[in-house]
Amino acid sequence: MEDATGVLTILHDISFELAPRESVSIVGASGSGKSTLLSILAGLDVPSSGRVVVAGTDLFSLDEDARAALRARQMGFVFQSFQLLSHLNALENVMLPLELMGRTDARAAATEMLRRVGLGERLSHYPCVLSGGEQQRVALARAFVVRPALLLADEPTGSLDFATGEKVMELMFELNREVGTTLVLVTHDSAIAARCDRQLRIEAGRLVPEAAQAPQGSQPTQAPVQALSAGSA
Q: What is the pLDDT of residues 204-213, one digit of tens each?
């Protein structure tokens, strides 16, 4: 990235792998580069150097259309601000990624996932009449309904009160285990971070080595995601 003072490097020499079904938290102070790293993992931001390999494919060897297609097949997203489409009801919001994939069972699969997150009676409700916790559960259902290999979550409880946030996180970890998704979670909450299998700590755009080690005894045989970024544009 360039500003008035010249080139601004946000991330420096970051390298790690994620094992299948692993849950990993990314922690660090505001401005340390956590959300930028998440955007690079998703292929939404393009680094000035380095690569991200998802399911054997280097994201940045693809053009934007191909990256978008890979995201649709392999990734799910949960955001602090929910990112629901206001003109679609709960069912339609969850059906959307399935319809974009051409799934003929979109309505049935979305209905079942909304029931799984406790919103079976709220299918026809629009975001404006749902509580924050309900909106985040719709967002979780939308993310998990495609059974993604990788789920990226950016401060998913940041807009929720403590009790609601606890329920949402419990549901996220349950779905993570059930679906077998690899979870990468950006959070400022140390209690949430501690629930993950591993923590990656970012300080001033660099990965703290001690926090980057896999848990003792962990021997993953396959790495569905490899990230290497020397800098970010």
A: 888 887 544 4
pLDDT, one tens digit per residue, over 89-118 is 999 999 999 998 899 999 999 999 999 999
Contact 209, 37 (CB under 8 A): no
pTM over 0.90: no
For residue 111, which amino acid is it? Answer: T
Task: Decide: helix, strand or coil at residue 203.
Answer: strand
Number of separate helices (H) and strands (E) present in the chain: 7, 12
Contacts of 109 by beta carbon, 8 Å cutoff, 6+ apart = 98, 103, 145
Contact 74, 82 (CB under 8 A): no
Among 36, 42, 34, 29, which Cα is nearest to 1's?
A: 36
Judged by DSSP in three states, 106 sits in helix
Q: What is the Cα–Cα distance from 57 to 221, expressed in whole angstroms?
A: 17
Q: What are the strands, taking DSSP E only, across 1-92?
A: 2-3, 6-7, 14-18, 23-27, 49-54, 57-58, 75-79
